[in-house]
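Researcher: Following up on the earlier apo prediction. This time include the ligand. It's zinc ion, with the SMILES given after the sequence.
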Amino acid sequence: MPAAAAGPEIERLIQLLARLPGLGPRSARRAALFLIKKREQIMAPLAAAMHTALEKIEVCRVCGNIDSQNPCTVCTDVRRERAHAVNARYHVLGGTLSPLDGIGPEDLSIDALVSRVHAPAVTEVILALNATVDGQTTAHYITDLLHDANVKVTRLAHGVPVGGELDYLDEGTLSAAIRQRTTF
Ligand SMILES: [Zn+2]
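Model: Understood. Below is the ligand-bound prediction.
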Protein backbone atom coordinates (compact mmCIF):
# COMPACT_ATOMS: atom_id res chain seq x y z
CA MET A 1 0.00 0.00 0.00
CA PRO A 2 1.47 3.39 -0.93
CA ALA A 3 2.26 5.74 1.94
CA ALA A 4 -0.48 8.26 2.60
CA ALA A 5 0.63 11.89 2.42
CA ALA A 6 -1.50 14.51 4.10
CA GLY A 7 -1.08 17.91 5.71
CA PRO A 8 -0.56 21.41 4.34
CA GLU A 9 3.26 21.18 4.60
CA ILE A 10 3.38 18.08 2.44
CA GLU A 11 0.90 19.54 -0.05
CA ARG A 12 3.03 22.68 -0.29
CA LEU A 13 6.16 20.61 -0.89
CA ILE A 14 4.42 18.60 -3.61
CA GLN A 15 3.06 21.75 -5.28
CA LEU A 16 6.52 23.33 -5.42
CA LEU A 17 8.21 20.15 -6.65
CA ALA A 18 5.56 19.89 -9.38
CA ARG A 19 6.78 23.21 -10.78
CA LEU A 20 10.25 21.82 -11.51
CA PRO A 21 10.98 21.12 -15.19
CA GLY A 22 10.12 17.56 -16.09
CA LEU A 23 8.11 16.84 -12.93
CA GLY A 24 4.34 16.52 -13.06
CA PRO A 25 2.03 16.18 -10.04
CA ARG A 26 2.51 12.40 -9.86
CA SER A 27 6.30 12.43 -9.91
CA ALA A 28 6.30 15.43 -7.55
CA ARG A 29 4.30 13.37 -5.06
CA ARG A 30 6.71 10.44 -5.44
CA ALA A 31 9.68 12.79 -4.98
CA ALA A 32 8.11 14.33 -1.87
CA LEU A 33 7.44 10.92 -0.31
CA PHE A 34 10.98 9.85 -1.16
CA LEU A 35 12.40 12.97 0.49
CA ILE A 36 10.34 12.41 3.61
CA LYS A 37 11.44 8.78 3.78
CA LYS A 38 15.12 9.69 3.24
CA ARG A 39 14.95 12.57 5.68
CA GLU A 40 18.52 12.39 6.99
CA GLN A 41 20.33 11.03 3.89
CA ILE A 42 18.71 13.23 1.22
CA MET A 43 16.22 15.80 2.48
CA ALA A 44 18.44 17.51 5.07
CA PRO A 45 21.54 17.82 2.82
CA LEU A 46 19.34 18.88 -0.13
CA ALA A 47 17.68 21.60 1.95
CA ALA A 48 21.10 22.79 3.12
CA ALA A 49 22.49 22.76 -0.44
CA MET A 50 19.49 24.71 -1.70
CA HIS A 51 19.90 27.24 1.08
CA THR A 52 23.60 27.71 0.24
CA ALA A 53 22.84 27.96 -3.49
CA LEU A 54 20.17 30.55 -2.78
CA GLU A 55 22.68 32.71 -0.92
CA LYS A 56 25.81 32.15 -3.00
CA ILE A 57 24.92 31.41 -6.61
CA GLU A 58 24.09 34.19 -9.00
CA VAL A 59 23.41 34.55 -12.70
CA CYS A 60 26.36 36.34 -14.32
CA ARG A 61 25.26 39.85 -15.30
CA VAL A 62 27.40 39.69 -18.46
CA CYS A 63 26.87 36.24 -19.96
CA GLY A 64 24.11 34.51 -18.01
CA ASN A 65 26.37 31.73 -16.73
CA ILE A 66 25.70 30.65 -13.16
CA ASP A 67 28.52 30.95 -10.68
CA SER A 68 29.25 32.01 -7.12
CA GLN A 69 31.01 35.13 -8.41
CA ASN A 70 29.58 37.90 -10.59
CA PRO A 71 30.81 38.51 -13.29
CA CYS A 72 31.44 34.78 -13.50
CA THR A 73 34.77 32.91 -13.63
CA VAL A 74 34.64 32.69 -17.43
CA CYS A 75 33.96 36.41 -17.94
CA THR A 76 36.69 37.46 -15.51
CA ASP A 77 39.31 35.18 -17.16
CA VAL A 78 39.54 36.09 -20.84
CA ARG A 79 42.04 33.30 -21.56
CA ARG A 80 39.62 30.63 -20.54
CA GLU A 81 38.05 28.99 -23.55
CA ARG A 82 36.72 25.50 -23.63
CA ALA A 83 36.74 25.02 -27.39
CA HIS A 84 40.20 26.52 -28.17
CA ALA A 85 39.05 27.18 -31.72
CA VAL A 86 38.15 30.84 -31.92
CA ASN A 87 38.69 34.12 -30.13
CA ALA A 88 35.28 34.27 -28.58
CA ARG A 89 33.30 35.09 -25.48
CA TYR A 90 30.57 32.96 -24.07
CA HIS A 91 26.98 33.79 -23.56
CA VAL A 92 24.88 31.26 -21.70
CA LEU A 93 21.21 31.27 -22.63
CA GLY A 94 20.23 29.15 -19.66
CA GLY A 95 18.25 26.66 -21.72
CA THR A 96 16.28 26.45 -24.93
CA LEU A 97 12.83 27.61 -25.89
CA SER A 98 10.39 24.86 -25.00
CA PRO A 99 6.70 25.73 -25.20
CA LEU A 100 5.72 22.33 -23.77
CA ASP A 101 7.68 23.03 -20.60
CA GLY A 102 6.46 26.63 -20.50
CA ILE A 103 9.93 28.03 -21.30
CA GLY A 104 9.61 31.19 -23.39
CA PRO A 105 12.11 33.90 -24.48
CA GLU A 106 11.65 35.79 -21.18
CA ASP A 107 12.96 32.75 -19.27
CA LEU A 108 16.28 32.76 -21.14
CA SER A 109 18.97 35.45 -21.34
CA ILE A 110 18.13 36.28 -24.96
CA ASP A 111 17.61 40.04 -24.39
CA ALA A 112 21.06 40.26 -22.77
CA LEU A 113 22.59 38.40 -25.73
CA VAL A 114 20.99 40.76 -28.23
CA SER A 115 22.31 43.84 -26.43
CA ARG A 116 25.81 42.32 -26.15
CA VAL A 117 25.80 41.54 -29.86
CA HIS A 118 25.11 45.19 -30.68
CA ALA A 119 28.53 46.19 -29.27
CA PRO A 120 30.76 47.39 -32.15
CA ALA A 121 33.48 44.79 -31.49
CA VAL A 122 31.15 41.89 -32.20
CA THR A 123 31.37 40.63 -35.78
CA GLU A 124 29.94 37.16 -35.48
CA VAL A 125 27.62 35.12 -33.32
CA ILE A 126 28.16 31.36 -33.21
CA LEU A 127 25.02 29.61 -32.07
CA ALA A 128 26.16 26.52 -30.21
CA LEU A 129 22.83 24.95 -29.44
CA ASN A 130 21.87 21.32 -29.04
CA ALA A 131 20.98 19.55 -32.29
CA THR A 132 17.50 18.93 -30.95
CA VAL A 133 14.16 20.39 -32.07
CA ASP A 134 14.15 22.84 -29.16
CA GLY A 135 17.79 23.79 -29.83
CA GLN A 136 17.15 24.48 -33.50
CA THR A 137 13.92 26.38 -32.77
CA THR A 138 15.89 28.56 -30.39
CA ALA A 139 18.63 29.08 -33.01
CA HIS A 140 16.07 30.26 -35.58
CA TYR A 141 14.41 32.55 -33.06
CA ILE A 142 17.74 34.21 -32.18
CA THR A 143 18.79 34.45 -35.82
CA ASP A 144 15.59 36.38 -36.56
CA LEU A 145 16.23 38.76 -33.66
CA LEU A 146 19.79 39.43 -34.85
CA HIS A 147 19.00 40.02 -38.48
CA ASP A 148 19.53 43.79 -38.26
CA ALA A 149 22.51 43.57 -35.90
CA ASN A 150 25.14 43.65 -38.66
CA VAL A 151 26.83 40.44 -37.52
CA LYS A 152 27.39 37.11 -39.19
CA VAL A 153 25.27 34.43 -37.51
CA THR A 154 26.73 30.96 -37.75
CA ARG A 155 25.99 27.65 -36.14
CA LEU A 156 27.93 24.49 -35.40
CA ALA A 157 28.34 22.12 -38.32
CA HIS A 158 30.06 18.71 -38.39
CA GLY A 159 30.69 16.70 -35.32
CA VAL A 160 27.44 17.21 -33.49
CA PRO A 161 25.29 14.11 -33.87
CA VAL A 162 21.67 14.67 -34.87
CA GLY A 163 19.59 14.63 -31.73
CA GLY A 164 22.78 14.90 -29.69
CA GLU A 165 23.42 17.14 -26.72
CA LEU A 166 26.56 19.27 -26.46
CA ASP A 167 27.25 18.23 -22.89
CA TYR A 168 28.21 14.74 -24.09
CA LEU A 169 30.74 15.90 -26.72
CA ASP A 170 34.48 15.71 -26.17
CA GLU A 171 36.49 18.89 -26.74
CA GLY A 172 37.94 17.71 -30.07
CA THR A 173 34.49 17.13 -31.50
CA LEU A 174 33.31 20.50 -30.24
CA SER A 175 36.42 22.20 -31.69
CA ALA A 176 35.86 20.60 -35.10
CA ALA A 177 32.21 21.59 -35.02
CA ILE A 178 33.11 25.21 -34.33
CA ARG A 179 35.87 25.34 -36.99
CA GLN A 180 33.51 23.93 -39.63
CA ARG A 181 30.60 26.13 -38.72
CA THR A 182 28.30 27.30 -41.50
CA THR A 183 26.29 30.47 -42.02
CA PHE A 184 22.75 30.29 -40.75
ZN1 LIG B 1 29.86 35.47 -17.28
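Model: The radius of gyration is 20 Å.
Researcher: Noted. I'll compare it with the apo version next.
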